[in-house]
Write a structure and sequence with these properties.
With 498 residues, this protein is α+β, with helices and mostly antiparallel strands. Among the domains are: 67 residues, no CATH class; 70 residues, no CATH class. 38% of the residues lie in helices and 17% in strands. It has 16 helices and 15 strands. A ten-stranded antiparallel sheet has the order 3-4-5-7-6-13-14-10-9-8. A three-stranded mixed sheet has the order 1-2-15. A hairpin with a 2-residue loop joins strand 1 and strand 2. The protein is globular, with a radius of gyration of 25 Å.
Length: 498
Amino acid sequence: MICENVQKLIDYAVAEKLITRDDIYVVRNQLMEALKLADWEECSGNYSGESIDDILAPLISYAVENGMIADTANSRDLFDTRLMGILTPMPREMIAEFHRLYAVSPKQATDWYYDVSKKLNYVRAGRIAKDLKWLYDCEYGTLDITINCSKPEKDPRDIAAARNQKASSYPKCMLCPENAGFPGHATHPARQNLRPIPLTVNGEEWQIQYSPYGYYNEHCIVFNEKHVPMKIDRAVFDKLFDIIDYLPHYIVGSNADLPIVGGSILSHEHFQGGGYTFAMARAEVETPFSIPAYPNVSAGIVKWPMSVIRVSSEDRQQLAECCNDILVKWRAYSDESAGIFAETEGVPHNTITPIARRNGSRYECDLVLRNNITTADRPLGVFHPKPSLHHIKKENIGLIEVMGLAVLPSRLSREIVMLEKAMLGGEDLRGIPELTCHAEWAAEVLSRHPEFSEGTARGILEQEIGRVFLEVLEDAGVFKRNDAGKSAFMRFVDVVVK
């Protein structure tokens, strides 16, 4: 049986053009070594289009049953990636094919690269499909709501193994180029099936790869080969525009470079992009204005819950200069009446989340104004989800959320099922430990929806979670969407246009 399962994986690799028939014996022997098979029985794999997850499952179970690996999520992931690494072409082959297709069109190249990343199970499409997703329509457009169910939860045994793992600085982080082919261990994921594609960004060597647990179509990471920290400065705009010149069908953006408003990895310079049109990109400019110093640039405030200035031009150089000018002025800007302070006790608070895209012949850049100031009663950030929303979203608001896609914690996938049942049964949520945090909100939901019933419950809860995400974005906006906030925003615009 084990030989049949191995043969099915080989047949899959041939059918999906990961290997050729010339490679079969070498691949078979490497798989036999990984599975500690001393003998081979000629057989048919009977591959008939099964998913890679279904093909790998019996091989992983065999490894567990025969004591080769521990029966934990991390051990299984390390092992299945090891097996897929055997099927993964060498970097030179992947790069050559990408460049061959790129000569036809950039989109054809990325279509192939994304597809092969899924076939190699680097992009874990089977797990991504488990994420809960729905839409929420509001005055700003249609927001994307996602509950992350794809990343496996930590097993206590994996946590214990991680504590015992010998410290290592290789690779320095999960974005360093040394990750390609890395076998992984208790505290670092396996990457034998990772093959980044090199590109030149602002005269430097960078690479592009897809996210293993992408939140949207072709969610990619573009990263500096050097382990240097995130920094939002004049050069960042040249880098963003270089990337969309190279991949004009993609959007690309950067997390901010300060804690709280920045991303999870500030130690390694990187951007995120992909082939998806976010709600923010569809939002219209509601207050246009001109900047005399940059006559070829169109500018305006975007109708969006966060504070966004959109600038666009066919003149790439002038647009980059304009973006930098706005950045410099925002870094130094304070408005006590709006609660905005450029710094306190020498600690800077203002930065920008930039997102770039091509719009026909024009370069377009959304500059999202961010501030990470904290207070005694808002230690997680003033421009951060208020405490009453933490039962849904407590985590930092990064690039993806800024653009209009909620990435909500996996716990909600369980809690929403429990909530539905408890609310339909009229139970006191304060008496259910997992649901206590939702009690006040659930009461408000029921008061707004007298039609709450078995047939409508799930849809109502999803829409109300969408409403919370909208509030989260409004909280993260430095200039609020009321009359006072709009006036405060225009005071900053006055500084920009001078």
